[in-house]
């Protein structure tokens, strides 16, 4: 079973790129972030024509998450618990073939310090609380998406340039490490412990051409799922396509139970 995550940076504007990637990569499940589309503008017809069922949580102009599946999909949670006043569309859960799949788009947090950074850390705190309910269960669980965190210096090109950025500040990395310490496995780091892996390249300064990237899209597996991890990688070539997202799709393969 192939599970992917992809920050599409606008699901309608980049729909041809998304559909081409779905056809070429053929993931069983694709978690999408940054739809930038209200609920009623999600391109369901095109997604279904590509062979996928979908659930999604839209928001006008900003944010938005979706889970696409070639298999039956059962929605489990809509929105991250812990703050009924939070109206940003950033979190969605579904059960697919017995696997509990959590799709997130964690806040960017810039400029930091400031209100946006405070919101990022508060959102992270809610995620820590909610993730704790999943990590010890016998049900296989994956948390995936755009975390907007580079966990270590290995995950960022020229880390000295990012010390004051919300994606790399000590508070952000500490929150991610606290999350992993609950008992989650960082899937790509398990597979490639010492390799330079990036999932995002800015549009500016020829970042993709220079491979000046960041690893901010992650897969976290609980103990019930981690033994089934077979493979994983980044479809880096997709970042080089015309009118593409600044993220590349990331994927893992899970063995059948």
From TrEMBL:
CDD domains: ExoIII-like_AP-endo (cd09086). The keyword Lipoprotein does not apply. One of its GO terms (molecular function) is metal ion binding. The record marks 148 as: Transition state stabilizer. Its cofactor is Mg(2+); Mn(2+). GO terms for biological process: DNA repair. Gene3D superfamilies: Endonuclease/exonuclease/phosphatase. The keyword Magnesium applies. InterPro entries: AP_endonuc_1, Endo/exonu/phosph_ase_sf, Endo/exonuclease/phosphatase, ExoIII-like. The active site is at residues 105, 146, 247. Mg(2+) binds at residues 7, 34, 146, 148, 246-247. Keywords: Hydrolase, Magnesium, Manganese, Metal-binding. The record marks 247 as: Interaction with DNA substrate. The record marks 217 as: Important for catalytic activity. Pfam families: Exo_endo_phos. Residues 4-247 form the Endonuclease/exonuclease/phosphatase domain. Probably binds two magnesium or manganese ions per subunit. NCBIfam families: exoDNase_III, xth. Belongs to the DNA repair enzymes AP/ExoA family. This is Exodeoxyribonuclease III. It comes from Pedobacter yulinensis. The gene is xth.
